[in-house]
Prior knowledge:
CATH architecture of the largest domain: 3-Layer(aba) Sandwich
Radius of gyration: 29 Å
Number of strands: 20
CATH topology of the largest domain: Rossmann fold
Strand order of the largest sheet: 13-20-19-18-17-14-15-16
Number of helices: 15
Shape: elongated
Amino acid sequence: MILCLLPLIFNKNKMNNQDYLLTAAASRKSLQELFLSAFCSLNENISLTWNEHWSEAQKLIIAEEILRLNFIENINLDIPDEFKQYLFFKNIPLTKLLKAECASVSLFPLNNKMNNHLPVLAHLWLFKGLNITIEDDLLHLEGNQIINTRFNIFITTSINNSIKDINGTSWQLAYKLAEKAITASSSKIKKRLSNEWIATGTIANETDTVLPINLGNKLSLPLKKHIKWLIPFENMKDITQEQQQNIKIRAVDSLNSALNHISGEGTRNINKSRLPNSIDELHILVGGNIKAQIASIILTQPSKIILWHSDNYNYSILPSNNIIDILKILLPEFNNISMKLLSNENIQKAENALRNYFDQDTSKKIIFNVTSGNRLMSYAVQTIARLFPRINLIYRELGEEKPHQFVMLNYREIPPYSGNVTGTLPSEFNNLNISFLYGKEPYTSVDDFIQKLIFEKYHVNTRSKNSDLT
Protein backbone atom coordinates (compact mmCIF):
# COMPACT_ATOMS: atom_id res chain seq x y z
CA MET A 1 0.00 0.00 0.00
CA ILE A 2 1.32 3.47 -0.91
CA LEU A 3 1.01 6.50 1.30
CA CYS A 4 -1.86 8.78 0.31
CA LEU A 5 -0.45 11.44 -1.99
CA LEU A 6 -1.60 14.72 -3.45
CA PRO A 7 -2.60 14.31 -7.10
CA LEU A 8 0.44 16.20 -8.36
CA ILE A 9 2.25 15.75 -11.66
CA PHE A 10 5.50 13.90 -11.09
CA ASN A 11 8.82 13.49 -12.83
CA LYS A 12 10.59 10.45 -11.40
CA ASN A 13 13.81 11.29 -13.23
CA LYS A 14 14.24 14.41 -11.12
CA MET A 15 12.96 13.21 -7.77
CA ASN A 16 14.58 10.89 -5.26
CA ASN A 17 13.31 8.86 -2.30
CA GLN A 18 13.78 11.80 0.02
CA ASP A 19 11.55 14.01 -2.14
CA TYR A 20 8.90 11.31 -2.30
CA LEU A 21 8.95 10.86 1.45
CA LEU A 22 8.57 14.56 2.20
CA THR A 23 5.78 14.95 -0.35
CA ALA A 24 3.88 12.01 1.04
CA ALA A 25 4.08 13.19 4.63
CA ALA A 26 3.38 16.84 3.84
CA SER A 27 0.21 15.95 1.94
CA ARG A 28 -1.49 14.44 5.00
CA LYS A 29 -4.38 16.32 6.55
CA SER A 30 -3.71 15.82 10.24
CA LEU A 31 -1.35 14.17 12.71
CA GLN A 32 -3.85 11.40 13.44
CA GLU A 33 -4.26 10.63 9.73
CA LEU A 34 -0.51 10.89 9.22
CA PHE A 35 0.19 8.51 12.02
CA LEU A 36 -2.41 5.93 11.06
CA SER A 37 -1.11 5.76 7.49
CA ALA A 38 2.60 6.46 7.86
CA PHE A 39 3.82 2.89 8.13
CA CYS A 40 3.16 1.59 4.64
CA SER A 41 5.47 -0.03 2.11
CA LEU A 42 7.36 2.48 0.04
CA ASN A 43 7.03 2.30 -3.73
CA GLU A 44 10.46 3.47 -4.83
CA ASN A 45 9.34 4.02 -8.41
CA ILE A 46 7.10 6.96 -7.48
CA SER A 47 8.65 10.40 -7.14
CA LEU A 48 6.73 13.65 -6.90
CA THR A 49 7.23 17.36 -6.93
CA TRP A 50 6.89 18.17 -3.28
CA ASN A 51 5.31 20.99 -1.34
CA GLU A 52 7.51 22.31 1.47
CA HIS A 53 4.65 23.71 3.55
CA TRP A 54 4.14 21.07 6.22
CA SER A 55 3.32 21.53 9.89
CA GLU A 56 5.34 20.58 12.97
CA ALA A 57 3.04 17.62 13.41
CA GLN A 58 3.85 16.47 9.90
CA LYS A 59 7.55 16.83 10.57
CA LEU A 60 7.22 14.32 13.40
CA ILE A 61 5.77 11.82 10.95
CA ILE A 62 8.48 12.57 8.41
CA ALA A 63 11.19 11.97 11.02
CA GLU A 64 9.64 8.69 12.12
CA GLU A 65 9.22 7.54 8.53
CA ILE A 66 12.90 8.26 7.91
CA LEU A 67 13.72 5.95 10.81
CA ARG A 68 11.41 3.25 9.46
CA LEU A 69 12.86 3.42 5.96
CA ASN A 70 16.40 3.20 7.30
CA PHE A 71 15.93 0.35 9.82
CA ILE A 72 12.93 -1.56 8.45
CA GLU A 73 13.02 -1.07 4.67
CA ASN A 74 16.85 -0.85 4.56
CA ILE A 75 16.69 2.31 2.44
CA ASN A 76 19.44 4.82 3.20
CA LEU A 77 18.26 8.37 2.61
CA ASP A 78 20.16 11.62 2.34
CA ILE A 79 18.68 13.36 5.36
CA PRO A 80 17.55 16.96 4.71
CA ASP A 81 19.57 19.50 6.63
CA GLU A 82 16.61 20.56 8.76
CA PHE A 83 16.24 16.98 9.99
CA LYS A 84 19.85 16.21 10.81
CA GLN A 85 19.51 17.73 14.27
CA TYR A 86 15.76 17.32 14.54
CA LEU A 87 14.92 16.39 18.13
CA PHE A 88 12.90 13.21 18.45
CA PHE A 89 12.21 10.59 21.17
CA LYS A 90 12.74 12.75 24.24
CA ASN A 91 14.90 15.31 22.45
CA ILE A 92 17.41 12.91 20.86
CA PRO A 93 18.79 14.18 17.52
CA LEU A 94 17.61 12.13 14.57
CA THR A 95 21.15 11.63 13.30
CA LYS A 96 22.12 9.98 16.61
CA LEU A 97 19.16 7.60 16.38
CA LEU A 98 20.23 6.63 12.88
CA LYS A 99 23.60 5.48 14.24
CA ALA A 100 22.00 2.63 16.17
CA GLU A 101 23.02 -0.91 15.25
CA CYS A 102 19.43 -1.92 14.40
CA ALA A 103 15.81 -1.15 15.29
CA SER A 104 12.30 -2.53 15.04
CA VAL A 105 8.83 -1.12 15.54
CA SER A 106 5.41 -2.57 16.34
CA LEU A 107 1.94 -1.05 16.59
CA PHE A 108 -0.48 -1.33 19.50
CA PRO A 109 -3.65 0.46 20.70
CA LEU A 110 -4.12 2.60 23.78
CA ASN A 111 -7.22 3.71 25.62
CA ASN A 112 -6.32 7.36 26.13
CA LYS A 113 -8.10 9.65 28.57
CA MET A 114 -6.49 12.68 26.93
CA ASN A 115 -8.15 11.90 23.58
CA ASN A 116 -11.80 12.16 24.66
CA HIS A 117 -11.56 8.51 25.71
CA LEU A 118 -11.09 7.44 22.11
CA PRO A 119 -8.45 4.81 21.31
CA VAL A 120 -5.05 5.97 20.13
CA LEU A 121 -2.57 4.14 17.92
CA ALA A 122 0.93 3.82 19.39
CA HIS A 123 4.26 2.86 17.81
CA LEU A 124 6.67 0.96 20.03
CA TRP A 125 10.29 1.35 18.93
CA LEU A 126 13.25 -0.74 20.02
CA PHE A 127 16.83 0.28 19.30
CA LYS A 128 19.94 -1.83 19.79
CA GLY A 129 23.39 -0.32 20.11
CA LEU A 130 22.15 3.21 20.67
CA ASN A 131 24.94 5.12 22.39
CA ILE A 132 22.89 7.44 24.59
CA THR A 133 22.12 7.88 28.27
CA ILE A 134 18.44 8.12 29.17
CA GLU A 135 17.08 8.93 32.61
CA ASP A 136 15.11 6.09 34.20
CA ASP A 137 12.03 8.24 34.73
CA LEU A 138 11.51 9.13 31.07
CA LEU A 139 9.23 6.17 30.35
CA HIS A 140 7.06 4.34 32.86
CA LEU A 141 5.54 1.06 31.68
CA GLU A 142 3.40 -1.06 33.95
CA GLY A 143 4.70 -4.62 33.95
CA ASN A 144 8.14 -3.58 32.69
CA GLN A 145 9.79 -6.73 34.08
CA ILE A 146 9.62 -8.28 30.60
CA ILE A 147 11.80 -5.56 29.05
CA ASN A 148 15.28 -6.57 27.94
CA THR A 149 17.75 -3.94 29.13
CA ARG A 150 19.92 -4.45 26.02
CA PHE A 151 17.43 -2.35 24.06
CA ASN A 152 16.29 1.25 24.24
CA ILE A 153 12.51 1.51 24.09
CA PHE A 154 10.47 4.51 22.93
CA ILE A 155 6.75 4.91 22.35
CA THR A 156 5.05 7.49 20.16
CA THR A 157 1.35 8.08 19.64
CA SER A 158 -0.84 9.88 17.15
CA ILE A 159 -1.56 12.67 19.65
CA ASN A 160 2.03 13.21 20.79
CA ASN A 161 5.47 12.41 19.39
CA SER A 162 6.36 10.50 22.56
CA ILE A 163 4.72 9.58 25.85
CA LYS A 164 5.91 9.09 29.38
CA ASP A 165 3.50 6.78 31.16
CA ILE A 166 1.46 3.73 30.16
CA ASN A 167 -0.91 2.15 32.65
CA GLY A 168 -1.80 -1.46 32.02
CA THR A 169 0.12 -4.29 30.38
CA SER A 170 -1.61 -4.69 27.02
CA TRP A 171 1.49 -3.24 25.33
CA GLN A 172 3.53 -6.34 26.20
CA LEU A 173 2.69 -8.47 23.16
CA ALA A 174 3.72 -5.62 20.85
CA TYR A 175 6.96 -5.26 22.80
CA LYS A 176 7.80 -8.97 22.64
CA LEU A 177 7.12 -9.01 18.89
CA ALA A 178 9.39 -6.01 18.39
CA GLU A 179 12.04 -7.77 20.48
CA LYS A 180 11.80 -10.88 18.29
CA ALA A 181 11.88 -8.76 15.14
CA ILE A 182 15.00 -6.83 16.11
CA THR A 183 16.94 -10.08 16.47
CA ALA A 184 15.46 -11.79 13.38
CA SER A 185 17.88 -12.58 10.59
CA SER A 186 15.16 -11.92 7.99
CA SER A 187 13.65 -8.49 7.44
CA LYS A 188 10.24 -10.02 6.62
CA ILE A 189 8.99 -10.01 10.21
CA LYS A 190 10.23 -6.45 10.71
CA LYS A 191 8.41 -5.18 7.62
CA ARG A 192 5.14 -7.00 8.27
CA LEU A 193 5.14 -6.00 11.92
CA SER A 194 5.50 -2.33 11.01
CA ASN A 195 3.06 -2.38 8.09
CA GLU A 196 0.29 -4.91 8.60
CA TRP A 197 -0.36 -5.79 12.24
CA ILE A 198 -1.60 -4.24 15.48
CA ALA A 199 -0.93 -6.36 18.55
CA THR A 200 -2.39 -6.20 22.03
CA GLY A 201 -2.06 -8.61 24.93
CA THR A 202 -0.31 -9.31 28.21
CA ILE A 203 2.65 -11.73 28.32
CA ALA A 204 3.38 -14.37 30.96
CA ASN A 205 7.13 -13.87 30.88
CA GLU A 206 8.09 -17.37 31.98
CA THR A 207 6.09 -19.14 29.27
CA ASP A 208 5.45 -16.43 26.64
CA THR A 209 1.74 -17.19 26.97
CA VAL A 210 -0.55 -14.41 25.72
CA LEU A 211 -3.04 -13.53 28.45
CA PRO A 212 -6.42 -11.77 28.06
CA ILE A 213 -6.84 -8.02 28.48
CA ASN A 214 -9.61 -5.45 28.65
CA LEU A 215 -10.23 -4.68 24.97
CA GLY A 216 -12.48 -1.73 25.73
CA ASN A 217 -12.96 0.31 22.56
CA LYS A 218 -9.51 -0.39 21.08
CA LEU A 219 -10.91 -2.16 18.04
CA SER A 220 -12.68 1.05 16.99
CA LEU A 221 -9.44 2.62 15.75
CA PRO A 222 -10.01 4.08 12.25
CA LEU A 223 -7.53 1.85 10.44
CA LYS A 224 -6.85 1.02 6.82
CA LYS A 225 -8.34 -2.21 5.45
CA HIS A 226 -4.98 -4.00 5.17
CA ILE A 227 -4.36 -3.85 8.93
CA LYS A 228 -4.85 -7.09 10.89
CA TRP A 229 -5.20 -7.52 14.64
CA LEU A 230 -3.50 -9.94 17.00
CA ILE A 231 -5.48 -10.34 20.22
CA PRO A 232 -5.40 -12.89 23.07
CA PHE A 233 -7.28 -16.08 22.27
CA GLU A 234 -9.45 -15.73 25.38
CA ASN A 235 -10.63 -12.29 24.19
CA MET A 236 -12.39 -13.79 21.17
CA LYS A 237 -15.48 -14.17 23.34
CA ASP A 238 -15.59 -10.35 23.55
CA ILE A 239 -15.68 -9.85 19.77
CA THR A 240 -19.05 -8.95 18.30
CA GLN A 241 -20.44 -10.50 15.13
CA GLU A 242 -20.05 -7.16 13.34
CA GLN A 243 -16.39 -6.90 14.36
CA GLN A 244 -15.69 -10.43 13.15
CA GLN A 245 -17.12 -9.50 9.76
CA ASN A 246 -15.46 -6.10 9.36
CA ILE A 247 -12.10 -6.46 11.12
CA LYS A 248 -9.32 -8.91 10.36
CA ILE A 249 -8.78 -10.46 13.77
CA ARG A 250 -6.39 -13.29 14.60
CA ALA A 251 -6.47 -14.90 18.06
CA VAL A 252 -3.20 -16.10 19.62
CA ASP A 253 -2.39 -17.91 22.84
CA SER A 254 1.40 -17.71 22.65
CA LEU A 255 4.17 -15.49 21.37
CA ASN A 256 5.22 -18.22 18.95
CA SER A 257 1.73 -18.35 17.46
CA ALA A 258 1.74 -14.56 17.03
CA LEU A 259 5.07 -14.75 15.20
CA ASN A 260 3.67 -17.47 12.93
CA HIS A 261 0.79 -15.19 11.96
CA ILE A 262 3.15 -12.34 11.12
CA SER A 263 5.76 -14.39 9.27
CA GLY A 264 3.23 -16.64 7.52
CA GLU A 265 5.32 -19.62 8.57
CA GLY A 266 4.31 -22.38 10.99
CA THR A 267 0.89 -23.43 12.22
CA ARG A 268 -1.34 -20.71 13.59
CA ASN A 269 -4.12 -20.72 16.17
CA ILE A 270 -7.70 -21.12 15.05
CA ASN A 271 -10.08 -18.44 16.30
CA LYS A 272 -12.83 -20.88 17.29
CA SER A 273 -12.87 -22.68 20.62
CA ARG A 274 -16.08 -24.68 20.08
CA LEU A 275 -16.45 -27.81 17.99
CA PRO A 276 -19.15 -27.07 15.37
CA ASN A 277 -22.38 -29.04 15.61
CA SER A 278 -25.37 -29.63 13.34
CA ILE A 279 -22.93 -29.99 10.46
CA ASP A 280 -23.79 -31.22 6.98
CA GLU A 281 -21.33 -34.09 6.80
CA LEU A 282 -19.00 -35.93 9.15
CA HIS A 283 -16.29 -37.99 7.44
CA ILE A 284 -14.37 -40.53 9.49
CA LEU A 285 -11.20 -42.53 8.93
CA VAL A 286 -11.99 -45.84 10.59
CA GLY A 287 -9.43 -47.95 12.44
CA GLY A 288 -9.27 -50.39 15.31
CA ASN A 289 -10.48 -48.14 18.13
CA ILE A 290 -13.79 -46.38 17.51
CA LYS A 291 -14.23 -44.29 20.68
CA ALA A 292 -13.15 -40.97 19.12
CA GLN A 293 -15.32 -41.70 16.09
CA ILE A 294 -18.42 -42.30 18.19
CA ALA A 295 -17.68 -39.18 20.26
CA SER A 296 -17.36 -37.02 17.14
CA ILE A 297 -20.72 -38.29 15.85
CA ILE A 298 -22.48 -37.51 19.14
CA LEU A 299 -20.94 -34.03 19.42
CA THR A 300 -21.24 -32.79 15.81
CA GLN A 301 -24.76 -34.18 15.14
CA PRO A 302 -24.18 -34.51 11.39
CA SER A 303 -26.87 -34.85 8.75
CA LYS A 304 -24.72 -37.39 6.93
CA ILE A 305 -21.87 -39.71 7.93
CA ILE A 306 -19.25 -41.23 5.61
CA LEU A 307 -17.02 -44.00 7.01
CA TRP A 308 -13.79 -44.24 5.01
CA HIS A 309 -12.23 -47.69 5.47
CA SER A 310 -9.37 -49.71 4.01
CA ASP A 311 -9.71 -53.27 2.67
CA ASN A 312 -8.34 -54.66 5.96
CA TYR A 313 -11.32 -56.50 7.46
CA ASN A 314 -10.29 -56.72 11.12
CA TYR A 315 -8.71 -53.27 11.35
CA SER A 316 -11.12 -51.18 9.28
CA ILE A 317 -14.16 -52.93 7.75
CA LEU A 318 -15.28 -54.64 10.96
CA PRO A 319 -15.00 -51.45 13.08
CA SER A 320 -17.01 -49.60 10.39
CA ASN A 321 -19.79 -52.18 10.65
CA ASN A 322 -19.69 -51.90 14.43
CA ILE A 323 -20.01 -48.10 14.32
CA ILE A 324 -23.17 -48.58 12.25
CA ASP A 325 -24.55 -51.11 14.75
CA ILE A 326 -23.77 -48.88 17.73
CA LEU A 327 -25.50 -45.92 16.05
CA LYS A 328 -28.62 -48.02 15.53
CA ILE A 329 -28.83 -48.11 19.32
CA LEU A 330 -27.64 -44.59 20.14
CA LEU A 331 -29.43 -42.89 17.21
CA PRO A 332 -32.16 -45.31 16.14
CA GLU A 333 -33.79 -42.82 13.75
CA PHE A 334 -30.54 -41.92 11.96
CA ASN A 335 -29.93 -43.82 8.73
CA ASN A 336 -27.88 -41.51 6.50
CA ILE A 337 -24.60 -43.37 6.90
CA SER A 338 -22.45 -45.10 4.31
CA MET A 339 -19.06 -46.79 3.90
CA LYS A 340 -16.47 -45.94 1.24
CA LEU A 341 -13.23 -47.68 0.40
CA LEU A 342 -9.98 -45.70 0.78
CA SER A 343 -6.61 -47.16 -0.13
CA ASN A 344 -4.18 -47.49 2.75
CA GLU A 345 -1.26 -48.42 0.48
CA ASN A 346 -1.38 -46.07 -2.54
CA ILE A 347 -1.64 -42.36 -1.76
CA GLN A 348 -2.57 -41.41 -5.34
CA LYS A 349 -5.55 -43.79 -5.27
CA ALA A 350 -6.57 -42.50 -1.87
CA GLU A 351 -6.39 -38.88 -3.01
CA ASN A 352 -8.35 -39.62 -6.19
CA ALA A 353 -11.13 -41.34 -4.23
CA LEU A 354 -11.44 -38.35 -1.90
CA ARG A 355 -11.18 -35.79 -4.70
CA ASN A 356 -13.92 -37.53 -6.71
CA TYR A 357 -16.22 -37.25 -3.70
CA PHE A 358 -15.49 -33.67 -2.66
CA ASP A 359 -15.55 -32.34 -6.22
CA GLN A 360 -19.31 -32.89 -6.21
CA ASP A 361 -20.22 -30.08 -3.83
CA THR A 362 -18.54 -26.91 -2.58
CA SER A 363 -21.01 -25.49 -0.08
CA LYS A 364 -21.40 -28.06 2.69
CA LYS A 365 -20.18 -27.66 6.27
CA ILE A 366 -17.80 -30.61 6.63
CA ILE A 367 -15.68 -32.13 9.40
CA PHE A 368 -13.24 -34.97 8.76
CA ASN A 369 -12.17 -37.04 11.78
CA VAL A 370 -8.65 -38.34 11.06
CA THR A 371 -8.04 -39.92 14.47
CA SER A 372 -7.82 -43.44 12.99
CA GLY A 373 -6.67 -44.95 9.72
CA ASN A 374 -3.00 -45.29 8.88
CA ARG A 375 -0.63 -42.42 8.14
CA LEU A 376 -0.94 -42.70 4.37
CA MET A 377 -4.71 -42.32 4.57
CA SER A 378 -4.31 -39.32 6.88
CA TYR A 379 -1.79 -37.68 4.50
CA ALA A 380 -4.26 -38.13 1.64
CA VAL A 381 -7.01 -36.43 3.63
CA GLN A 382 -4.71 -33.49 4.48
CA THR A 383 -3.86 -33.05 0.79
CA ILE A 384 -7.55 -32.89 -0.08
CA ALA A 385 -8.21 -30.52 2.84
CA ARG A 386 -5.75 -28.09 1.23
CA LEU A 387 -7.76 -28.20 -1.99
CA PHE A 388 -11.14 -27.89 -0.25
CA PRO A 389 -10.65 -25.48 2.69
CA ARG A 390 -14.29 -25.87 3.78
CA ILE A 391 -13.12 -29.16 5.35
CA ASN A 392 -12.13 -28.96 9.02
CA LEU A 393 -9.94 -31.82 10.22
CA ILE A 394 -10.26 -33.05 13.80
CA TYR A 395 -8.12 -35.45 15.82
CA ARG A 396 -8.12 -36.85 19.35
CA GLU A 397 -5.55 -38.89 21.23
CA LEU A 398 -6.84 -42.05 22.90
CA GLY A 399 -6.93 -41.42 26.64
CA GLU A 400 -6.87 -37.63 26.35
CA GLU A 401 -8.01 -36.40 29.76
CA LYS A 402 -10.27 -33.52 28.70
CA PRO A 403 -13.69 -34.80 27.56
CA HIS A 404 -15.25 -33.59 24.31
CA GLN A 405 -11.98 -31.96 23.22
CA PHE A 406 -10.42 -32.40 19.77
CA VAL A 407 -7.58 -30.73 17.90
CA MET A 408 -8.94 -28.95 14.82
CA LEU A 409 -6.86 -28.19 11.72
CA ASN A 410 -7.95 -26.03 8.79
CA TYR A 411 -6.10 -25.20 5.56
CA ARG A 412 -8.11 -22.16 4.53
CA GLU A 413 -4.77 -20.34 4.57
CA ILE A 414 -1.19 -21.56 4.33
CA PRO A 415 0.30 -22.13 6.83
CA PRO A 416 -2.74 -23.83 8.39
CA TYR A 417 -4.72 -22.95 11.49
CA SER A 418 -4.83 -25.37 14.42
CA GLY A 419 -6.03 -25.45 18.00
CA ASN A 420 -8.13 -27.22 20.61
CA VAL A 421 -11.91 -27.18 20.19
CA THR A 422 -14.44 -28.48 22.70
CA GLY A 423 -17.81 -29.96 21.83
CA THR A 424 -21.08 -29.69 23.74
CA LEU A 425 -22.78 -32.92 24.75
CA PRO A 426 -26.46 -32.89 23.69
CA SER A 427 -28.84 -33.27 26.62
CA GLU A 428 -30.26 -36.54 25.30
CA PHE A 429 -26.85 -38.14 25.88
CA ASN A 430 -26.46 -37.19 29.54
CA ASN A 431 -26.75 -40.90 30.35
CA LEU A 432 -23.40 -41.70 28.73
CA ASN A 433 -20.40 -42.93 30.68
CA ILE A 434 -17.97 -40.22 29.65
CA SER A 435 -15.09 -41.85 31.53
CA PHE A 436 -15.39 -44.92 29.31
CA LEU A 437 -15.91 -42.98 26.08
CA TYR A 438 -12.75 -40.94 26.52
CA GLY A 439 -10.71 -43.31 28.64
CA LYS A 440 -8.44 -46.27 27.87
CA GLU A 441 -10.75 -49.00 29.20
CA PRO A 442 -10.95 -51.77 26.56
CA TYR A 443 -14.05 -53.38 25.10
CA THR A 444 -14.60 -56.72 23.35
CA SER A 445 -17.83 -56.43 21.35
CA VAL A 446 -20.69 -54.17 20.34
CA ASP A 447 -22.64 -55.41 23.37
CA ASP A 448 -19.68 -54.72 25.65
CA PHE A 449 -19.19 -51.24 24.16
CA ILE A 450 -22.85 -50.33 24.71
CA GLN A 451 -22.95 -51.85 28.20
CA LYS A 452 -19.96 -49.78 29.26
CA LEU A 453 -21.04 -46.62 27.43
CA ILE A 454 -24.59 -46.38 28.78
CA PHE A 455 -25.24 -46.37 32.52
CA GLU A 456 -27.05 -49.38 34.01
CA LYS A 457 -30.54 -47.92 34.19
CA TYR A 458 -30.46 -47.05 30.50
CA HIS A 459 -29.26 -50.43 29.25
CA VAL A 460 -31.14 -51.80 26.25
CA ASN A 461 -31.11 -55.09 24.44
CA THR A 462 -28.29 -55.11 21.93
CA ARG A 463 -27.53 -57.51 19.19
CA SER A 464 -24.49 -59.75 19.35
CA LYS A 465 -23.59 -59.18 15.71
CA ASN A 466 -19.84 -58.66 15.22
CA SER A 467 -19.15 -59.80 18.78
CA ASP A 468 -15.42 -60.04 18.02
CA LEU A 469 -15.06 -56.26 18.13
CA THR A 470 -11.61 -55.26 19.44
